Sequence to fold (657 residues):
Amino acid sequence: MIFVFIVLSAITLISSFGVVISRNVVHSALFMSGAFLGVAGFFAMLHSPALAALQVLIYVGAVTVVILFGIMFTQRPQVRRFRTILNRQVGAGFTVALFVGALLIYVFLQQDWGSTSAGHGPRTVASLGRILVGVSSGTDIFALLFEVASILLLVAVVAAIVISRRKTGEGVERRAEE
Amino acid sequence: MPYSAETFVGLIPEIIAAIFLLLVLMVGVFAERAAGLVSGITALGTVLIFASSAWLLASGFHGSFFGGGYVVDGFALYFKLVVAGSAFFASLAATRWAQGTGDATEYLTLILSVVLGALLLVSMRDLFGVFLALELATIPSYAMVAFDRSRRESAEGGMKYIITGAVASSVLLYGIVLIYGASSSANLSGVAKAFSSGHASPVALLGLILLLSGFAFKVSAAPFHFWTPDAYQGAPTSAAAFLSVAPKAATFAILLRILVEGMPGEARVWTAIAAVLAIVTMFTGNLFALRQSNVRRMLAYSSVAHSGYVLTAFAALQGGAKAEAVQAVMIYSAAYAAMNLGAFLVIDLVGEDTKSFNGLIRTRPMVAASMFLFMAALVGIPPLSGFWGKLWIIIAGTGSGSILTYVTVGVLVVNTVLSVPYYFGIVRNMIFEEPVAGTGETKGEGPLKFSVYALAIITVLFFIIIIPLAAVAGSSGLL
Fold:
């Protein structure tokens, strides 16, 4: 079990590191799907195959592909490369990361985990769905949050259009006005 | 059927906000160039939100819905009034700028979604709900900061804001998840059980620290404030004005609710953290503000300093003055909303360079008088609005019985003196310097001027408004 955990952690960490340091946006996106796959493995380890499957379907499948599409449609090939990715702040960043990592390790070692174990809570897709729309007991708030999430997605689309239109739309609009 | 009619009554302000959000979006689709129409609809929406919240407050409506995850009480309704009020003035002030860009619809949609997020946020009693509502208030604000295509700082500020904001959100979420794991409940009453014994588990305490760090980012407390000056400088002025007031007040409100309702057992820990954060934040904000030549950047640092003042009230949430500390946060938020919104809107009228304020008393006396009032209020000169906020914080602080809090209150007084030069530097420029060309009136600034004058009147008459405010704050239902 501990061996599986180490392998999954390695996959997740190395992929996440790859996302940050690779100089090509497409490579970053591909690395990200690796990190998502590692997380899906953790869900499987925690006896939650439904969540693992959703993680693979939604994150590895849909999100990564949409990001790749987004990159391909909005940018010319030459700007897909970053010039400098490791800048002057790398030292400070590593110091902060080391400090936070040390703090987390210390706290997790101090904690009395008692009888904590994997394998509680709802497992089936049907019960996950009931929680999501707030009809199972004790999760009423999710009925409201479900609606809020839908508005959040709508607003995020508007926000994304506002931000991304500046690059391609700028020239087009000027021409239309002139 | 778990949802009674009462649930929908309690959600009236949010439902109005959601309806007007969609309405503005749809009107924008069919009437592309009608910037005046959509800003009118937005302003009407905020008025209706304000009226419905006031009606709920006046009728004494309170209740807890969705299994205790969503609460409507005096505290929440008070902050809904603050948010709706500042959104009203911000949407009026945005009219002129939005007309110029041709994207009024998107801009006002984003304002309304920040409003909706803030309205939901102050009522949440569930940590996942807190996160979602906070994101609904934050994600559109990234786009608002990056909205101005004509200036490079806008994109730069937006980029910095998105990246630090995303980090802050993930830190906050990590904290929430650890708290959820330690208490096996995301509901604040369930969380309170895990924190009640006085010696919470290490993981729960780590969750508390991460939660506080995440919120410190969101309210731009030092040392998590680095995005603030760049974001406020880059943003369109009306956006900077609105974002420095409404979401910030709501974020302080929900942080107060989480700490008071969810973690009363660990008050010793978080009041100490709040005190240290407050001291660092006040000094950082004021010392950097002293060195700015750009008024907008100066006000950004001043808003950092004001976050420190509010955090002082958080540090006072112990001993015998808890009720006063909660009132202090509420009164300060309203006072700060009026004076800071006004100061930013004057920048929108006059310009962001210090020089553009030169001799304003001769060229535009009314605007100069308003700016003088806002600056004096930000310093905290009685009887203007800022004074009452600071007075309540000092009353709460002296009643707290903690030495660290006494020190924090002392630092607040010192910082008030420190802040005088940069606020009154503007006043000096307005009175003694020779006017520069090009500060005259421009077309279509009627609504903007109306907002500035109205906010100036509110700032002056705050000593009357304070009476109902204190009454509402005193019976807020929190504590």
